[in-house]
Amino acid sequence: MSRSYKKLVRDLIPEKIIATGKSPVTHILSDKEYQHELFRKLEEEVSEVIDAKNKEQQIEELADVQEVLLALYKSLDIQCEEVTGAGRKKRKQNGSFEKKIFLEDVK
Description:
With 107 residues, the protein is an all-alpha fold. Helix content is 60%, strand content 0%.
């Protein structure tokens, strides 16, 4: 019986599938396809963070988000330090989210 996934997976997943006696069908993505699939994977992982039921699951899913972000940085030729610097700049200009402010309206 075959099951369709049609998604980007971590590098060792095909080997793990083979170890169970099954045969994965895979192909290598072009750079453009890879970036597209990384963005799809990011959406998937963020959704899993939102749906996580406890702190342990949240940690696991946030680790997946972080791994996808690291792959995106590399794919987009962005250094982690560039993102960190941009974050510092935004915090300086607009603050962070520590005060839990929810904007209702502007009149």
